[in-house]
Write a structure and sequence with these properties.
The chain is α+β, with helices and mostly antiparallel strands. It has helices at 4-20, 39-59, 82-101, 117-140, 148-169, 171-174, 221-228, 243-252, and strands spanning 30-31, 34-38, 183-188, 194-198, 205-207, 215-219, 238-241. This is Maleylpyruvate isomerase family mycothiol-dependent enzyme.
Length: 255
């Protein structure tokens, strides 16, 4: 996985790549992968998420103040130009990276799932930015490229965070995934990433191994990461076995 220092740097780097796509763009266009938002609102969402994490780290909050997260309150952001929002977004990413760099990665602040907040939020904000950078590129029809090392971390974060979160948050929706022999193998063909998701019990268990599973999906690590985060269909990837189980997993695990 990426080091803590690399994630702090990637928050800035991925934000820089995101804003490079916005020069001259119409921020009023709808974003297909987040259809309730325009580009204007998506950019504000990313920046507000950065600022929320920044606040938690700088104030060293013990518990996560969800009521102070404004990243979903986007109705008022209309008619802005890239020249207005780009400096604001870049400034917020730099501030968050700085805040994270100034604390002990294992300090128990803004704890999530029993894990130290600085490590969790450095990772979450890295991949929040990665995925929304893809949303921007897709909406504007411009190329999207991602370092396979970063994509590997994106994929593993999905199994570490999004997967258990879905089972905790939506037990009725995820219950149909559980059953004897129900296992899913994610296999990157261009990176050291093989993950087996064991769904045979009430909570998913993830193993980093090569095992026979009920269904396996193989492909480049960037494409696997985009698939699990519902940014691209599995068509075009190699799928072996119970494709319906894979489709159900990707449908029910939302984040």
């Amino acid at each position: 996985m990426l080091t803590y220092e690399r994630r702090c740097a990637e928050i800035i780097h991925q934000t820089s790549l995101l804003v490079s796509s916005l020069d001259g763009a119409d921020l009023g266009v709808q974003v297909p992968s987040t259809p309730d938002w325009t580009l204007n609102q998506l950019v504000r969402h990313v920046g507000l998420a950065h600022r929320w994490a920044d606040m938690m780290i700088r104030e060293r909050v013990a518990e996560i103040p969800y009521d102070r997260n404004q990243a979903q309150e986007l109705d008022s952001y209309v008619g802005e130009k890239a020249s207005e929002v780009v400096p604001w977004l870049v400034e917020g990413a730099a501030s968050l990276s700085e805040a994270l760099s100034e604390v002990d990665p294992d300090e128990m602040i803004a704890v999530l799932g029993g894990h130290p907040g600085p490590r969790v939020w450095s990772r979450r904000m890295t991949h929040e930015t990665v995925l929304h950078r893809w949303d921007v590129a897709n909406a504007l029809g411009v190329p999207f490229e991602l370092d396979p090392e970063v994509a590997r971390d994106t994929l593993i974060e999905w199994t570490d965070l999004a997967l258990p979160f879905a089972f905790y948050r939506w037990p009725e929706q995820t219950a149909p995934l559980v059953g004897p022999g129900r296992t899913v193998h994610l296999h990157a063909t261009d990176a050291d990433a093989e993950l087996v998701i064991d769904l045979t019990d009430s909570r998913p268990v993830v193993r980093h191994s090569h095992e026979k599973a009920a269904v396996a999906v193989r492909g480049p690590v960037v494409e696997l990461a985009l698939a699990v985060y519902r940014r691209r269909p599995v068509e075009g990837l190699e799928v072996f076995g119970d494709a319906e189980l894979l489709d159900l997993l990707l449908d029910r695990v939302r984040f």
